[in-house]
Design brief:
The chain contains eleven helices and no strands. By secondary structure, the protein is an all-alpha fold.
Length: 263
């Protein structure tokens, strides 16, 4: 998973490092195409060219100051890399808890403790790991088994939440970078007013445009990451509930096993 995250992060960084120059080049080509189309009185084609969502996004990216927009884009890429890594990990960690516990119950009913351990070893995820830790101490007192299961369960829960703090960091950073662009855009507007010695909509519009575009993109990035983060939290909550249920069932199975085979 660490290798996967590193690959995604590096691809995203290298992609967005080249974004400003690539977009600037493409925007120049688009502008020249629009001029050519206008000279040939092809107004409908110009409208289609200008109305393209993809081209509009690239144009707004340049207008919002490529430096700050690149920082927001990098925050999006890194945040998505952490989100994808967590989603893959959590999906692999989730198993059919009832099916697993039924197999363990069948093995313990036969008195086959080693078979139950083998089932846990051959099953991925924290639920199987918790059950294996409990079965390792099946010959000890039930209180000892319970403490072992609870302690190991807290460790597995921490593994599930690993990396979530980075996602919250990028959720907070994206709008912050956008607001930073807003402040700088306002400063640019006041600098233009000071140099011109006059307040007019044309002078103020440039700086205000940078301010508003960077804020919009920062908020959009934060909302995208927030959706993924909430999905991750729901998956963690589901797996944690399954771990708790499996722990209770395992303790009951161990008590039945002790009553049946250790009289």
């Amino acid at each position: 998973m660490k290798k996967l995250f590193a690959i995604l992060a590096m691809i995203g960084i290298f992609s967005f490092v080249k974004v400003p120059s690539i977009i600037a080049q493409e925007s120049t080509e688009i502008s020249s195409q629009i001029v050519q189309l206008s000279s040939s009185d092809s107004e409908s084609d110009v409208i289609i060219e200008q109305g393209s969502i993809h081209e509009a996004l690239k144009t707004k990216f340049i207008e919002g100051d490529a430096g700050f927009m690149s920082l927001v884009a990098i925050a999006l890429v890194l945040g998505l890399a952490f989100c994808i890594e967590r989603i893959i990990y959590l999906n692999l960690a989730e198993v059919n808890e009832k099916k697993l516990m039924s197999k363990i119950e069948a093995a313990l009913d036969r008195g086959d403790v080693e078979g139950a351990k083998t089932i846990c070893r051959n099953t991925r995820g924290p639920i199987a790991s918790i059950c294996y830790q409990g079965l390792m101490r099946i010959d000890e007192n039930v209180d000892v088994v319970e403490r072992s299961v609870v302690s190991y369960g807290s460790v597995q829960a921490a593994y599930l939440e690993n990396g979530c703090s980075w996602i919250t960091l990028f959720i907070a950073m994206a709008p912050s970078l956008g607001f930073l662009g807003t402040v700088i855009g306002m400063v640019m507007a006041f600098d233009d007013i000071e140099r011109a010695g006059d307040i007019s909509p044309t002078i103020v519009a440039g700086g205000m445009k940078v301010a508003l575009i960077t804020t919009i993109f920062g908020l959009i990035v934060a909302m995208i990451l927030q959706v993924f983060y909430n999905y991750i939290l729901s998956k963690i909550e589901t797996i944690t509930n399954q771990m708790e249920d499996a722990s209770i069932v395992l303790l009951d199975l161990i008590m039945k096993y002790n009553l049946k085979y250790k009289k």
